[in-house]
Amino acid sequence: MTRPFEVAIIGAGMSGLFLAHHLKEAGITYQIFERRDGVGGTWHDNTYPGLHVDVATRRYEFPFARSNKWSKRYAPGSEIRGYFESFAKTDGLLPNIRFSEEVTEARWTDGRWVLSTSKGNRVEAAVVVAATGFLRVPRRPAIPGAESFAGPSFHSSEWNHDVDLRGKRIGIIGTGSSGIQIVSELGRANHDVTHFIRTPQWMQVRANPRVNLAEKVLLKVPALRRYWDWRTARNRIETEGPETWRLEPGPERDRMTQRFHDELRKAVQDPGLLAKLTPTEPPGCKRIPKTPDYYTVVQRPNVTPVFGGIDRIEPNGIVSADGVLHELDVIVYATGFDTHAYMRPMKVVGPDDATIDELWRDGVYSYRGVGVPSLPNFFLLCGPFAPVNSLSIPTTLEHEVGFLLRVFDEIKKTGAGLAPTVAATEQFRAEIGKVLPNTTYSLCDNWYRDQAGTAIIWPFVAQRHLDQYAEVNLGAEFELFPISGETARTTSTGS
Questions:
Q1: Residue 413 to residue 10: CA distance in whole angstroms
Q2: What pLDDT, on the 0 to 100 scale, is given for residue 332?
Q3: Which of 102, 207, 296, 460 has the fewest CB atoms lying closer than 10 Å?
Q4: What's the DSSP call for residue 352?
Q5: pLDDT tens for residues 15-72?
Q6: Which parts of the chain register pLDDT below 70?
Q7: Global confidence as pTM
Q8: What is the pLDDT of residue 2?
């Protein structure tokens, strides 16, 4: 008897909802397992003051669910979360989401994936897709004495709204997008803020104007909406530079580097502060926060930037590397995420007991951002080597999901399991490795890098990301796993 084709999606964030929509449209049975009590992923977790999306909101929408209700060019986090909640409801996805149910293990058994969940359930699926994202597992640095702090402390993605910040001395650790947004918001609101800056960041100074009524009306008309999207794309190139400046050295990179220096010098007149805020690393080697006013806010009398490392934390505050105690009432760790966790700590066990932890022991990798050898019918969205810093997430998902639907058709046709071959994966990694040294991502320590120092990121232009999936020969680059679950044999799928 032919067993049903069902897809289990891990995560109801942007990626999970995107895939679910397309599976529904294709008539494919699916379930989403979500450990939280609502949709939105990182936009469900993060609720810190000043949170907003750092790409133009029009580029952050699903292409099949456009909106004209955004309040700002870079929408607040609450609106992004509301957008995903509204979409999941109106698209009819909610009945297929199992909320507050985390998948703790996925095990390949007799040609199927058997999922164990936090509620004690065991569920079978033909295919598993990890749509868990990469901004999910908070990272807190191991600072001596952290547990001794007498006041409240929390990670930016676990904001404690029960803490009244009025009249409090607030320390913010971290200079990524979260730290910059929090310092800007709290500093602008006249809170007493101390910003601990181990290494200064390059930033793009970008206004965040409100979307006026005329623009909202304009976006209701398809032809005018297309014009607006074209204009947005053109403005993005003018303000952020061509997509190639991060990918190869040359005049484009030189011009962008000069632009960052000019923006900083224009915003900060004090020579001493300017020197301290000027990064020693080149622009583009880390993700670049966008801010309308951080440089202005950090010069306010109620905001104190502290440069250099942190020596320790004491009950009354933070002792910086120069031995100075900065007395604080609240500490916020805006220190980012374990961006290479992906679906983990979920346990994944494939044929011959191959586990994801064993496969990734020396560093994370994937086949074209979506597959891992030795794990048949187990796929990822925005996995290792995805273009997380060069393409918008919806564009990335459009490319990846389109390819996965082709793979799903082949799985249904063969009735067996498919996984990328080791040879195809190594060839893909070699293509990446050949060009990475030319990119800005290789020029400093950043969250793209694995423990071996390799930048796990897409180093090509957007069009090549789309083209790569059209060029895949499933018969040559994937191996077939028989439904008995025995050792895989490298049989052509005939595609």
A1: 24
A2: 98
A3: 207
A4: G
A5: 999 999 999 999 999 999 999 999 999 999 999 999 999 989 999 999 999 998 999 9
A6: 1-2, 484-495
A7: 0.95
A8: 61
Measuring CA to CA, which residue among 203, 154, 193, 189 is closest to residue 50? 189
Give the tokens for residue 358. 């064993």
347-349 β-sheet, strand order: 122-125, 112-117, 103-109, 347-349
DSSP 8-state class, residue 467: H
* Encoded tokens for 378: 């187990």
* pLDDT attached to residue 230: 86
- What is residue 148's DSSP assignment? G
The pLDDT value recorded for residue 285 is 95
195: closest CA among 208, 215, 180? 180
Q: Quickly list DSSP for 304-365.
A: EEEES-EEEEETTEEEETTS-EEE-SEEEE---B-TT-TTTTSEEE-GGG-BHHHHTTT---
Rg value, the chain, Cα: 24
Contact by Cβ (8 Å): 77, 47 = yes
Amino acid at 224: L
What is each CA distance from 273 to 177, 263, 279, 296, 299, in whole angstroms?
20, 14, 12, 12, 9
Both tokens of 342, joined, read: 């992906």
- Joined together, the tokens standing for residue 381 give 């969205």
